[in-house]
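Entry for the shared binder. Reason: the reviewer on the internal report wants the predicted structure included alongside the sequence.
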Amino acid sequence: MVDNAKAGGTRWGAVFLGWGVAVFAGLVVSPALRLLYVSFSEPAVERGELTATLVVISLVAGFLSYLIGGYVAARAAGRSGGTHGALTAVVGLVVGLALAVVLGLFGVVFAEGVSLPPVGFGLAGAALFAGLVLFLTNLFGGFVGGKLGEPLSAGTDG
């Protein structure tokens, strides 16, 4: 007989719930951090400009958002909290890449006088490195949140 608590398996409903909570938390946390930064320092960052300040705010907001989302995913799954929490960030990456492809295709289809697809999509140099660091931070935040939300198992003396 297989013990369901130890059988593993991913509860994708819990992962998607955690991802949705992380997105909502990001919509709240990110503007709050930007507002906090602007109130204590220089003027806001220009749109489209990649600065160290923007990267740090994105890292902190992403970490906190996926920490919350990972916690929710772990509580909903009831097991394997770290895995379910980390998968919230993986789902976020997959959804983000899918949106980038779809929006890129819309840009090619509806752009006038463009014969080739746009090159780059910001996937070079500093933007690529910042995106990779942001994803790894989100992954770590989801994992930590998942571990925090993992139910305490009774009788694991082994």
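Summary line for the report: The chain has one domain: 14-110+130-149.
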